[in-house]
Design a protein that fits this description.
single chain, alpha+beta, five-stranded antiparallel beta sheet, two-stranded antiparallel ribbon, 5 helices, globular
């Protein structure tokens, strides 16, 4: 999917719409983020199951992250900063969000250990003449 919006290209990867600005900053579609992090509620009405997004919860969490979300319309068409996505993922209580946090911790710890090993090796090699 490619859609031109005010000189910004909206693309999709793994079911998530995103926009990348000229400076490299990435924005993610809030609806896709909400579904991915498990901010959906399933209800049965007249024998049919409907899914709705818990926009009030999302707005509450986002306004704790940044005051600009107090005045913005939080909904389907909003794109949020990638960094705000990570903060939202840290406060979400769904099993999907918890699994994502575990994945981040493991990835971060592994990359942190590798960097630490690399730095120690570099320091030792610089000391040895």
């Amino acid at each position: 999917m490619n859609k031109q919006i005010q000189n910004v290209v909206t693309e999709m990867i793994d079911g998530i719409n995103y926009q990348q600005m000229i400076g490299g900053e990435i924005f993610l579609n809030l609806k896709d983020v909400a579904i991915g992090l498990g901010f959906e509620r399933e209800r049965e009405r007249n024998g049919n199951i409907t899914k709705t997004i818990r926009w009030d919860n999302i707005k509450k969490y986002l306004s704790e992250i940044d005051d600009r979300y107090l005045t913005q319309e939080v909904g389907l068409d909003l794109f949020i900063l990638e960094s705000d996505f990570y903060e939202l993922a840290m406060v979400a209580k769904s099993e999907t969000a918890k699994a994502f946090r575990r994945l981040l911790r493991k990835s971060f710890l592994l990359s942190g250990n590798m960097e630490h090993i690399f730095l120690k090796t570099q320091l030792r090699s610089n000391w040895i003449i």
